[in-house]
Each structure stands twice: as C-alpha cells, then as structure tokens.
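Hi everyone, sorry if this is the wrong subforum. Our group has a chain we'd like a structural model of before ordering constructs, and none of us has done structure prediction before. Sequence below.
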Amino acid sequence: MDRNPLWPGISAGIAAGALWGLVFLAPELAGAFSPLQLAAGRYLAFGVIAAVLLVPRWSRVRASMGPREWRALVGLSLTGNIVYYVLLASAVQLGGIAMTSLVIGFLPVAVTVLGSRGAGAMPLRRLAWPLVLGIAGIVCVGWETLAGAAPAKPASALGFLCALGALASWTSYAIVNNRWLSRLPHVSEHDWNLLIGVVTGALSLLLVVPAFLGRQASHAAPAWGLFVAVCCGIALLSSVLGNAFWNRASRRLPLTLVGSMILFETLFALLYAFAWERRGPTGYESVAMLLISGAVLASVWVHRHPAQHATQALHPQADGHGPAAGP
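Answer:
Right subforum, don't worry. Here is the predicted structure as tokens:
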C-alpha cells in the first residue's frame, strides 16, 4: 500500500512524455522555417498563453517570488526552453526525427546519474540495469546515425551534435527545476510552469528580430498560417500542459525515477515519427525502443521494490518512498 503514491507521479510522467513527443513533429510540419524562427514563435506563444492564465492569480503568485526566484526562472527559461529548443529543432531538421528523439532518450541516464546524489534518491548501484539498458539504446541509434545507411553526411553529423547539445541543456534544466520545486512547496506546479512561460516569452522577444528580420517575403500567407498554428499548438500542448505534468511528476517521484519518465517522450516521439514518415522502425530503432522500454520498466520496478535491493545498506529515506509521496 505504501508504494501506491508512485503511480500518480508515473501517470503524470507518461502524460508529459506523450505531449512532449509532439515537439519533434513541429520542425517537420513547419520545415520552411528556421529553428530560430520556430523557437521564437513557440515561446512567444507560450509567454502570451502563460500570462493570460496567470492574470487571475498574479498578485498572490508575485508575492511568493523574490530576486533569487526570478533569476532562477531566467536560467530555467534559457536551458529548458529557448537554448534547448533551438538545438532540438536544428537536430531534427539536420538529422531527422528518429535520430534526434533517440539521442534525447539519453536524458534519463544523465538525469538519473546526477539525481542519484540528491536527498532520498535511489543509490546509483541499484539502478545499474536501467542505466545499462538506456545506454545500450543510445548506442544503437548512435551506431546507425554515424556508421549506418547514410554514412559521412555532414548534415547528419551536425544534427547529431545539435542533439547532444540539447541533451546537455535540458539535463541541467531538469536538475535545477527539481530543486526549485522542492524549495517552493507553497507555489503550485502549474503556477511555477506559467511563471517560466512568462519569462520565456519575454526572453523570446530577443529572438524575434534576428529570426524574422528580412525573411518575411520568403514565405507565402498559407505557410505563415501553418507556422502560427504549429507554434500555438506546441505552446499549449507541450509547454503549458506537458510541463505542468512534468512538474507534478517531479514533486511526486524521486529524481532517479523522474529521469526514467523522460523516456516516454522518446517512445512517443518515435511513434509520431513513424506515423509521419509512413514507415516502420529499422532494425536498430526496434532494438533501441525495446531497450528503452526495458529501462523504464526496470527503473519503476527497482523503485517499487526497494526492499529487494540491499536495503540493509541504506538509510530508510533512500527507499524512494518519502519523495515519491510528494506534497
């Protein structure tokens, strides 16, 4: 019975992954626009939507924020949104949806390794199998990308590097965001996400001029309509709703298990990619998906059965139940 509080967090993680997976389709749907334009449009829309939703609660929320909190929001807006998405969109356009989504699939490994140092986290040695399975999945996609059917393509290699940069940026965001959610129990997960949205929207104004100056004439009116629809749709579904689900999971699960939840973004992104490209997975992609699925299941099992993993060597808080219950 004491393990049941894990499931609300896991459900929130699955929902976040399903919504985040849509992000990988945006560069394909609006392929006529540059990654910088997509980032500026998406986050400007995110800021406007977040500001509108915050209006009824603005006075109360603002009273909870000090200079340190606002500085943290600026850093999170950059690493988790603007910098991350510019690199992600570049990787998708240069290397494809499948390659990018599988490289980003390495996020759970990075977050789990760093999160194992946090209070109440599962010791790293007890997460060996989930980590090995996750790393093996990334090895599969890296092998196919750099030594597979399309070898030595500069665009593909550059896309791979952009994906790695996005990986580093969002790993930093996941760790820091988790810490701030723990420090601010009086601020709801949804309001914290909307605050990040407002700051992100303000910062995205710095991208508007370099992104769009002198490029308006290169697109027809229907292309601009599609661009606006994609930006608003991704802002609402992935940024507002997806991030809110992620914050809920972050508060209800230990960071070592939260990291595994990111893999759902990879799995859903792959499913969306195969549907968009009207194809099935390649051999390497199939193996990678199986390994990634195994990594998620193994991580959940370890966190749900801590007593079967050398609990005599641990403090009671390290079983993962304290943080999992959440506020």
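For your construct planning: The CA atoms of residues 50 and 194 lie 5 Å apart. Residues 6-325 form one domain.
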